[in-house]
Design a protein that fits this description.
Number of domains: 2
Shape: globular
CATH architecture of the largest domain: Alpha-beta prism
Radius of gyration: 21 Å
Strand content: 15-25%
CATH class of the largest domain: Alpha Beta
Largest sheet: 4 strands, mixed
Length: 444
């Protein structure tokens, strides 16, 4: 498992074999910075009124798309990758470039957040990505921005990227979301709202997928000087961002990525007597995916969540559960792999939005878990996993989806013969994942 993961373009023929853990490990792990926080902090800093210094920045495919796009928009970024630090010269709510073409790759946060940022500014800006990005819907966001006075148009299929923004910013007013497909649409509007000429009122009239990410966005806006008001309504709630506010520059520390920490926690949960401590994540985290530690506690791991670290021990007892994971859908693949080794079935509901991610994650899970011997049933918004008596050796297809690669690698620590195809897809959020996983497993 020690191959160099910094090879050139990923090849579907390339695979890496995961070596099983031969004895319990006792490891301390500090994962790289959060992708979700990095890709919020960068555009916030670009909108701010001075020079912001971001520490603990994640450098991965998704964040590089954000960095490159901000540079194409004319912002000055002083990038110090070895130090994981970036200084951003803010534009005080204005985009320097009057015209741009932004390649967002397969980064949903880059596509959605910058669509809103560009719509809230002047100029002609067109955003596009890889073919899969052009299959991921964006219509809800475009409709919401249009309600606020934004001028946007589709370059190809209505409701999907590529999109272009044209005009002189957002007027403000009211926009509504009901049963939204992605919290990123709401976060995108929130992030751009301080640039509107009048107050923005966002009405959430139904359930919000990945609700903790909306709270993350609001917390970060507050940390950069933006006040907001939340009120309960008959159908949900309303968030108001008053006009006349400006993001303030600051020095900001980006915490480790809780989503990527999940694979190390799951690995310890599957190995009897294993122990892992995840540093700099805990009760005070901005990230909702920290709650996955509690999910692993429900299935049988011994878990302690402190303010600044998470400690998990494998008990050797994993039990299937029935759980709604609408708040933390990015953790479904990790739990699904843990479920392979559980006593009894695991049923995960409330996760229909997984069909709109980097791949149709419910379909991909059904195919790959079946390959390992499980019996799997899916619906439009759920997956049920009946674990096999013995997990089969298999080559796992990853569908150019980093979370498929990282989650199924965990199975290889418990069962021999697991190969991960196209491991380089992890570069989307965690380029050194396999190196760090091997290092943890080697600590005895």
């Amino acid at each position: 498992m020690g191959e160099n993961m910094e090879s050139s373009a990923p090849s579907p023929a390339h695979a890496i074999t995961i070596e099983p853990v031969l004895r319990p490990f006792d490891a301390v792990v500090r994962v790289p910075g959060s992708k979700s926080i990095t890709n919020r902090a960068l555009p916030i800093a670009a909108m701010a009124d001075g020079v912001s210094t971001l520490h603990g920045v994640l450098f991965s495919d998704d964040t590089r798309r954000m960095i490159e796009s901000l540079q194409r928009l004319g912002f000055q970024l002083h990038v110090e990758e070895p130090a994981r630090r970036i200084q951003v010269v803010g534009g005080s709510g204005r985009i320097p470039a009057v015209e741009s073409s932004l390649f967002c790759g397969n980064s949903g946060t880059t596509m959605r957040f910058l669509t809103a940022f560009c719509a809230a500014s002047s100029g002609r800006h067109c955003l596009h990505g890889v073919p899969r990005m052009h299959q991921r819907p964006i219509g809800e966001l475009i409709t919401a921005l249009a309600m606020l006075g934004g001028r946007l148009d589709y370059k190809d299929a209505p409701g999907f990227p590529p999109v272009c923004t044209t005009g002189t910013g957002l007027a403000g007013g009211i926009c509504r979301f009901s049963a939204t497909q992605s919290s990123q649409y709401i976060s995108a509007v929130l992030l751009a709202s301080p640039l509107a000429r009048q107050a923005v009122r966002i009405r959430l009239d139904g359930p919000v997928t990945s609700e903790p990410y909306v709270e993350m966005t609001l917390n970060m806006m507050d940390q950069f000087g933006i006040a907001f008001k939340q009120e309960t309504t008959a159908t949900g709630r309303e968030i108001t961002i008053a006009s006349g506010q400006h993001y303030r520059h600051r020095t900001y520390a980006i915490e480790p990525d809780a989503s990527n920490a999940s694979y190390f926690l799951a690995a310890a949960a599957l190995i009897p007597q294993a122990k892992v401590r995840i540093l700099d994540l805990g009760n005070k985290s901005l990230q909702g995916d920290v709650a996955f530690a509690e999910v692993l506690k429900q299935v049988g791991a011994a878990v302690e969540i402190l303010d600044d670290q998470i400690v998990l021990r494998g008990t050797g007892q994993i039990t299937g559960i029935d759980i709604n994971m609408n708040n933390i859908p990015d953790m479904v693949q990790t739990l699904a792999v843990v479920a392979l080794f559980a006593r009894g079935p695991t049923r995960i509901t409330g996760v229909g939005n997984l069909r709109l991610k980097e791949t149709d994650r419910l379909a991909a899970l059904q195919t790959e878990l079946t390959r390992l011997g499980a019996q799997v049933r899916t619906t439009a918004e759920s997956i049920t996993i009946e674990p096999p008596e013995i997990v089969h050796p298999a080559r796992i297809h990853t569908y150019d989806d980093h979370r498929m690669a990282m989650a199924f690698a965990v199975a290889g620590l418990r069962q021999s013969g697991i190969q991960i195809a196209d491991p380089d897809c992890c570069a989307k959020t965690y380029p050194d994942f396999f190196r760090d996983l091997a290092a943890m497993a080697a600590v005895g």
